[in-house]
Specification:
Helices cover about 40% and strands about 25% of the residues. It has 2 helices and 5 strands, in the order ααβββββ.
């Protein structure tokens, strides 16, 4: 059986983390260059301060990027584990919390009722198109860790055709 790959793309957290890392490295380089000159005491203090700020930016960027990579690896592990539940699509709506190129992406919301009668809701990743007319099924696979539904991966791609935007 071939190993399937998750679709992740460029998320907001990834863009922010790389921006912070680039700013951090730039600050460290400038601070080291100015402080290394050692022209006077103020230049050395300025260099250390600038480098310190750069280190903070770099650490924040690295932490954000590691969180993003960790989530992607967890989703890939969930998909490869093969343990899933079938949830019913309850709603397709726009995600008004995000705006990309003056457009709101779509999300698919699903419901699942477990053996105890509890209803669990799940959200898909952001989609750049309205998936409603393209859905092949009303049920979607949600990959989970045993009975722990806190970490999940919705395999929305399995019930959608391949969409290529030009």
């Amino acid at each position: 059986m071939e190993e399937r790959k998750i679709k992740s793309g460029w998320t907001g957290l990834r863009i922010v983390s790389l921006t912070f890392a680039i700013i951090g490295v730039s600050y460290i380089i400038v601070g080291t260059a100015v402080g290394g000159l050692g022209i006077n005491q103020e230049a050395v203090i300025f260099g250390y301060t600038f480098s310190g700020m750069g280190a903070v930016f770099l650490v924040v960027g690295a932490v954000c990027y590691s969180l993003e990579i960790r989530k992607k690896r967890r989703d890939q592990r969930l998909l490869n584990s093969g343990q899933y539940i079938l949830a019913e699509i309850s709603e397709i709506t726009m995600n008004y919390a995000v705006r990309i190129n003056r457009r709101y992406p779509y999300i698919v919301k699903c419901r699942y009722q477990d053996r105890n009668g509890c209803i669990h809701t799940f959200r898909s990743r952001n989609l750049n198109f309205d998936p409603a007319p393209l859905l092949r099924d009303s049920m979607v696979r949600i990959y989970v860790e045993g009975d722990n539904f806190k970490h999940y991966y919705m395999d929305i791609d399995s019930i959608l055709p391949t969409v290529i935007e030009h």
